[in-house]
């Protein structure tokens, strides 16, 4: 197996590159950092991948070889190695135009790394943080040049997922945003610019859906039944299966952080099924069991079956009595909070238009293609019908309270995709 140099010289493709916008450094050789660096290199962008752990860099090389074999489309290791360098230090960072930080999603660690990098790069270099849950303004607080800092949220797996959220903080300059957009486009991605806030855009709306799922479990609705209804609606996987794929450890942390940002609509849940399973040592697919159990089939693919241990734990600690709901009721309780959170995001100008919002949901979380996105689905139902359904479930809390923009559209039979400027 070919490998990529660990100690590049000064005459490599990175230093020789004349287009400064194509000089990228990535800090952190975890799953996301490796995927980001691979995506740069596979699009011909000279890139350096830095980590303090040699073992992490070796694993990154192994993962990139695997990506080449599966998705390289004729790209060879020699071509990739010609533009990619893995390294244990900050050599060459002084030449970078863009540095993408992709270390663990911990505020203290990210602040430390970003501060180190800022002291090494040129004054006009743009720093970008790949984070899914931390506020960009919080990350910018310790920087000397916060105007040259923005968020760049890739979705996992980075080489395959087309969407990138470019996050503008309060002090982020137009120059930094434009640079991040150009970087994403050079990597073959589709950038959507969003405003800073807990969960940004896509994960914020997704968390409204996951909170609704947890509420259904707390009321005694069976997770397998919920998954079947969601998948019949068009989701590639139901919420329980999705949480298993993400990992209950990662998913629970993301939920906790984003729920805390919207306590009126996503209040604390004393009977949180994710935490119950996690406390029992169930991590999801990567650990072999979560809501479901996983094993390799004869063809090498993972097969899943209901985890009876999970069902028992939920019966003992979350909801002792089962509640039967019709599929339509399950879908209303899942989808209405998504629509409502999407409307709030649009009202708050987190994103520029209903079209961009729906496109982000389709590209970022696989919103059912036939539905077209949360706001296009609301248009399909009709704003008046959505308001009526909200009233039916209003006893469940603020997550089902129709926002002013939705009520306004209902009163005049308007549509989100014809009224992007109405907010």
Biggest sheet descriptor: 8 strands, mixed
CATH superfamily of the largest domain: NAD(P)-binding Rossmann-like Domain
* CATH class group of the largest domain: Alpha Beta
Strands in their spatial order, largest beta sheet: 3-2-1-4-5-6-7-8
> In percent, how helical is the residue content?
40-55%
**Computed structural class:** alpha/beta
As for the CATH topology of the largest domain, it is Rossmann fold
Low-confidence stretches: 6-11
Per DSSP, the total helix count is 18
Could you walk me through the main structural features you see in this protein, from its secondary elements to its overall organization?
The chain is 47% helix and 11% strand. α9 (223-233) crosses α14 (327-347), α11 packs antiparallel against α12 (273-279) and α17 (383-393) packs across α18 (404-411). It has helices spanning 13-16, 31-42, 54-71, 77-83, 107-118, 136-140, 174-186, 202-218, 223-233, 239-246, 248-261, 273-279, 308-317, 327-347, 354-365, 374-381, 383-393, 404-411; strands spanning 24-27, 47-50, 84-87, 98-101, 126-129, 149-154, 163-168, 190-195, 292-296, 302-306. It has three domains: 13-195, NAD(P)-binding Rossmann-like Domain (Rossmann fold, 3-Layer(aba) Sandwich); 202-256 and 268-317, N-(1-d-carboxylethyl)-l-norvaline Dehydrogenase, domain 2; 327-418, N-(1-d-carboxylethyl)-l-norvaline Dehydrogenase, domain 2 (Orthogonal Bundle). It has 18 helices and ten strands. The protein has an eight-stranded mixed beta sheet, with helices on both faces. A two-stranded antiparallel sheet has the order 9-10. The protein is of the alpha/beta class.
């Amino acid at each position: 197996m070919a490998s990529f140099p660990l100690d590049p010289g000064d005459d490599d493709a990175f230093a020789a590159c004349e287009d400064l916008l194509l000089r990228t450094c990535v800090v952190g050789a975890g799953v996301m950092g490796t995927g980001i660096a691979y995506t740069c290199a596979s699009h011909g962008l000279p890139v350096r991948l830095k980590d303090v752990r040699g073992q992490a860099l070796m694993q990154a090389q192994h993962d990139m070889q695997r990506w080449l074999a599966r998705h390289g489309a004729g790209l060879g290791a020699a071509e990739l190695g010609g533009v990619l360098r893995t390294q244990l230090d900050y050599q060459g960072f002084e030449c970078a135009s863009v540095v993408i930080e992709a270390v663990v999603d911990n505020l203290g660690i990210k602040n430390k790394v970003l501060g180190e990098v800022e002291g090494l790069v040129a004054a006009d270099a743009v720093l970008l943080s790949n984070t899914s849950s931390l506020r960009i303004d919080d990350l910018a607080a310790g920087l000397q040049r916060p105007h040259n800092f923005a968020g760049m949220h890739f979705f996992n797996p980075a080489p395959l997922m087309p969407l990138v959220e470019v996050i503008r903080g309060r002090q982020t300059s137009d120059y930094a945003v434009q640079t991040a957009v150009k970087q994403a486009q050079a990597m073959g991605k589709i950038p959507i610019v969003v405003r800073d806030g807990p969960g940004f855009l896509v994960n914020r709306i997704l968390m409204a859906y996951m909170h609704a799922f947890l509420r259904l479990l707390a009321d005694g609705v069976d997770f397998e039944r919920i998954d079947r209804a969601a998948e019949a609606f068009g989701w590639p996987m139901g919420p329980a299966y999705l949480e298993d794929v993400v990992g209950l450890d990662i998913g629970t942390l993301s939920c906790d952080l984003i729920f805390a940002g919207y306590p009126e609509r996503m209040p604390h849940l004393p009977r949180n099924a994710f935490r119950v399973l996690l406390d029992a040592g169930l991590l999801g697919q990567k650990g072999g069991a979560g809501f479901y159990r996983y094993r390799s089939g004869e063809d090498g693919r993972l097969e899943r079956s209901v985890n009876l241990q999970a069902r028992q734990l939920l019966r003992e600690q979350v909801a002792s009595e089962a509640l039967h709901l019709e599929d339509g009721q399950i879908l209303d309780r899942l989808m209405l909070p998504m629509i409502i959170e999407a409307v709030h995001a649009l009202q708050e100008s987190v994103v520029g238009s209903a079209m961009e919002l729906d496109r982000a949901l389709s590209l970022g979380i696989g919103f059912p293609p036939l539905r077209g996105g949360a706001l296009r689905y609301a248009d399909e139902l009709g704003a008046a019908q959505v308001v009526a359904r909200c009233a039916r479930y209003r006893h469940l809390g603020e997550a089902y309270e129709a926002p002013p923009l939705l009520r306004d559209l209902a009163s005049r039979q308007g549509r989100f995709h014809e009224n992007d400027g109405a907010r």
